[in-house]
Amino acid sequence: MNFIEVKDMSKIYGSGDNEVRANDQINFKIKQGELTVIVGASGAGKSTLLNILGGMDTNTHGDILVSGKNISKYNDRERTTYRRTGLGFVFQFYNLVPNLTALENGELASEIVKNALNPADTLKKLD
Question: At 3, is the pLDDT very low, low, confident or very high (cuts 50, 70, 90)?
Fold first, then answer.
């Protein structure tokens, strides 16, 4: 079974003469445990795709199945739950609270998740 399946997915910004297609009818499948690398020129739509897969943005057309669930049909609340409980993000510096330590940022994030991993134990694994 595929872990991720993207079917005829498009993300379109603007309309008419101002229409920009960040992703245009893309299709791919990723099996669980499969290493996948997304490459392309600047502006090719890599970040747009990752934001959609991560539930931070929505696609304009097509379907996105993650573990058999069509996340492209999720409403705002369902996407929030998906982000909170269904996956993990490694953000760059802009999503960290700058006056907190790495541990404190981890502790802050763990307060909004049921059954969160222990932040101190998680940081030790990164050494």
Answer: very high
